[in-house]
Every structure is written in structure tokens, then in C-alpha cells.
């Protein structure tokens, strides 16, 4: 097997493409959340983006397997790309489940999480760019990591508030099951945002 020598720009380019996918699917999710109709249309759009992200994930893993020198530890890059892919998968899953369940009127937490997800996506895209460009702890990187953690904390508060409201206020047990599943997935998205910010922090600590 031929090993590729320093391919840092190639890794960075792949991660920029992944950031493009995150930006796309976040925009689709936010439009979907705002309009809350045409579920089938938005699911197919998100599925296309999710498939594109899967291809990029495969390309990065393939590059890892062929590269002799990598910008960061192989295990860290592997974890980073899989967590990035997880966010995109979960966003697609949320749209798909709402389409599948045919839930009636939108609950308020859909808009609440849509706002958090938009902010977290913006922060993460900048954070990954800073990671590849600076490779060391800076004030801007610390602020981005802190912002993502704060957004995840907000997501926890919304989750607990809305779960209590759902269990105590909704009378239809089937709707409780459907909406709880959607709520859990949205909360999980924010957890993965925090996980990936922790992964970035770990990479920076090792590189410093």
C-alpha cells in the first residue's frame, strides 16, 4: 500500500465539506420547524444531505487508512468525524420521525430546539475551522467550546420542562410516545454537540 505523506489540507477540505452538510441540513431543519408541513418533502431533502455526509465520512476514514502522517491522532479524527456524522444523522432522523408519526399541531419545543441547533451549528463550524488553523488553545476556541456547553445546558432545561408538560398535559398515550421520542432525539442532538466540543478540546490539549 502506498502511504500518503502529510495530507493535512486534504483532511481540512473534507471537514469543510462536512461543515457544509451540517449548514445545509440545519437550514432545512429550521425551515421545516418553522413551516411544519410538507413533511415528506423535507425528509427527502434531509436524506440527500445525510447521504452526502456519509460519503464524506467514508472518504475521511479512507484517507486515515492511507495516510502515514495525520494532523491529529487517528483515533481523535475518527471520533471527530463520527460525532459530526451523528449530528447530521440525528437531524435527519428527527425530520423523518415527525414525517413518519404524522403528529398534529407543533409543540413549542420544536422551535426552541431549532434555535439552539442553529446556534450550535454555527459555533461548531467555526470551532472546527479554528482547530485546523490554530491547533492550540486560544480565547476564541475556549469561548466557542463554552458556548456549545451552555447551549447544551439550555437544551437540558427545555427537555425536562417539556417532558413534564407532555406527561402531565397530554391525554393521548400514543401522542405521548410519539412526541417523547422526538423530544429525546432533539435533546440527544445537543448532547452530541457537547461531545464533539469535548473531543475538540481533547485534541487541542494533546497538540499544545
What would your notes on this structure say?
Helix 1 (8-35) packs antiparallel against helix 2 (39-66), helix 1 (8-35) packs antiparallel against helix 4 and helix 4 packs antiparallel against helix 5. The protein has a single domain, classed as Methane Monooxygenase Hydroxylase, Chain G, domain 1, CATH 1.20.58. Helix content is 85%, strand content 0%. The protein is globular, with a radius of gyration of 18 Å. It is built from six helices and no strands. The protein is mainly α.
Which word captures the global form? globular
| N- to C-terminal distance | 32 Å
| Secondary structure: number of strands | 0
- The computed structural class is mainly alpha
Number of helices: 6
- Element-level helix/strand string: HHHHHH
Oligomer category = single chain
Mean pLDDT: 92
Strand content: under 5%
- Can you say what the CATH homologous superfamily is? Phosphate transport system protein phou homolog 2, domain 2
Whole-number tally of structural domains: 1
| CATH topology category name | Methane Monooxygenase Hydroxylase, Chain G, domain 1
* Percent in helix: over 70%
Reported for the largest beta sheet, the result is: none
The CATH C-level class name? Mainly Alpha
Radius of gyration: 18 Å
CATH architecture: Up-down Bundle
